[in-house]
Please model this.
Amino acid sequence: MADGKKKIYIVEDDEFLRSLNAKKLEGEGYEVVVAVDGPSAITGIPEAAPDLVFLDLLLPGGKDGFDVLTSIKADEKTKNIPVIVFSNLGQTEDIEKARKLGAIDFLVKANFTLDDVVLKIKDILK
Amino acid sequence: MLPALSFAFITEPGFMIVFVIFFVLAYCLGYYWQSRHSRVSLLIEEANFKTDQIAKLEKVNKTLEDTNRQLYAKELELTMANTHLASLEQAKSKFISVTTHQLRTPLAAVKWTLDMAAKGDLGVVDEEQKKFLNKGLESINRVISIVNDLLKVDSINTDKDDYQFKALDILKLLEDVFFEFNNQAISKKISLIIEKPDKGVPLVEVDDDKIRMVLENLIDNAIKYTPDGGKVTVRLSDSKLNSAVPALEISVIDSGIGISPEDSGKIFHKFFRAANAIKKEPDGSGLGLFIAHDIIEKHGGVVWFESHPGDGTTFFFTLPLHQKKV
Model:
């Protein structure tokens, strides 16, 4: 944030998707920090203090996306960071649960291109 | 001696009287005997009749008992079959949700890769390469939409009890859905327009996920079946707000291929796809309108359309403002 760049935190366990996402966002001028599982995200997000979080739901490490979301929203320092849940589950219950836990949006990865994702980010961060 | 005796017999008044009394008595006795006999035989006849009746009833009873036993056995069979079906349904549901997730992850990866490559994010590409990459992207998007349809079909096997009605700002939902289709519309140079009354529309009590599906389906169809450069308008109308059952009327208007009169009756049938639709879009499940129709009905609304082949189609549906509390 010191150099004016917005920081995006990506929590995604699939290596390829993660690298594509990071590549796109860095290309758009964002600073990108990543976590590959639940526990790392829970400790990493308060540390990194990002401007926005992309959160996958199915994560290894014993804590899933919902756990990470709950933890972020419970922490004074991080509860106001917008969180977009980015997943390939799309069941109504999941979307509802994510909204209730404080996610600002829910995107099914397969239904959006990375350009759409960038548009969303620009929209939320403006 | 004898003749003298008989004469004397007849002429003796005493004997005459006895004789008459005897005669009368004999007659009465005979009559009485006769009637008793016939009464008895009547009784016997009645008894026989009743015995026959009882025998017939017992026969009918036995038949009923047999039928009952068979029905009971059938009921047991059906209950078992039903339980089996329910558990199959559950297993199928789980299979579909797990599989769709497994499929979606690599599909997303391919989609993003092709998209980025086509846009030059992975290195400079010439027009020819761009064309091929976009074709690949189209194919992948088709597979993704079939996977999405599978999920949707699975989710419509829900009872009305699973619907959760909440007051919704339909305009906001519509804008969300338009955002989803923005890219598709842009790539076909189709304008997406929302028309609404100046004073806006009230909140409407709906299951927002299900109504989202309806809007997605109608708008997806409108875009799919409209040639490049066309127009898709969604109009919110307050014309039915003052009717007996206040409702919002929503119409999705396109400038596309239209629906022929022969196909009109089958448009909402499961798996039906009109010939001109298949020609324009070879892939499609034929489930979208079936699902949309089901959802709108469960909201107590009505869905219909007006169309002329080659002249565009307008799909209308109504949503009652309020749902009855069960």
Notes: Chain B has a mean pLDDT of 87.
